[in-house]
Structure formats: structure tokens, C-alpha cells
Write a structure and sequence with these properties.
Structural class: alpha+beta
Helix content: 40-55%
Strand content: 15-25%
Largest sheet: 4 strands, antiparallel
Number of strands: 4
Oligomer: single chain
Number of helices: 3
Radius of gyration: 35 Å
């Protein structure tokens, strides 16, 4: 017992940071140590393995380090999110629609009708199908 009476411990403070912030802080302090440890273990194991197995072991170390870096980036939120293909397609279509369309003109000469839009031209005559000419 304390000479001044019982010791009162303060109540724990409510958490002021999210789990992601806490993990980011921990990884910021220890992430490099994890990667160095992984590489040292892999390189140390090469001393006990035959020389023909060095290349696969180094490949495994590189793959594991890459995967660990990817996981750490995912936890900390520093990894760029990839755009989904359907979003890219829709974005491209919207960009195309936003462009100014080529002007369109229609010329009628007797029984001959010519529709022109940009470099494309379609001509029809009564009783015949359209014939298309492209200035591409």
C-alpha cells in the first residue's frame, strides 16, 4: 500500500486513432527491419545450400519481399488503386461524346442526295442503295 493511501489509476483514454493509423505507424518504424530480416535470412540460408539452388532461393526471396512490400502498401493505404476496365471504357466514351462533332450537311440535286459528315460522304439515288466514300 502506498504511504499516501490507495493509488488511483486513471481510466484509459479512448482510442484516438484508427487501426489503419496505428498499423501505418508501426510499419513506418519496423517495416524496413522486416524486409532486412527477410533478406538476411534468405542470404544466410545460401551458406548451407548447394550452389545450384542459389538462383531459386534468390527468386523466392525477391518474390517474398515484393509480396511483403505490396501487403504493407495495402495496409498503409499508399498503394495506388487501379482503375477498373469498365470505368476506363465509360470514361473514354464520355470523353468522345464531349468532343465537338463534325458538322453534317445534306445536299439534294434532283434525285441525288448526298450526306456529308466530316470526311465521310454518302450518296444515294432513287431506286439505288447508298454508296459510301471515305476521305480517310
Amino acid at each position: 500500500m502506498h504511504p499516501n493511501g490507495p493509488v488511483k489509476t486513471p481510466a484509459p483514454a479512448p482510442a484516438k486513432e484508427s487501426a489503419k493509423e496505428s498499423a501505418s505507424r508501426h510499419i513506418g518504424r519496423n517495416g524496413l527491419a522486416y524486409l532486412v530480416g527477410l533478406v538476411l535470412i534468405g542470404v544466410g540460408s545460401l551458406a548451407f545450400l548447394p550452389s545450384e539452388s542459389h538462383a531459386p532461393v534468390i527468386g523466392l526471396i525477391a518474390g517474398a519481399a515484393t509480396a511483403l512490400i505490396g501487403m504493407l502498401q495495402g495496409i498503409t493505404g499508399t498503394q495506388d488503386k487501379e482503375q477498373k476496365p469498365e470505368v476506363a471504357i465509360i470514361s473514354d466514351l464520355v470523353d468522345r461524346l464531349d468532343k465537338n462533332p463534325d458538322p453534317m450537311s445534306v445536299t439534294v440535286e434532283g434525285e441525288k442526295v448526298t450526306v456529308t459528315k466530316g470526311a465521310d460522304s454518302i450518296t444515294t439515288k432513287r431506286g439505288q442503295g447508298p454508296s459510301k466514300s471515305c476521305g480517310c
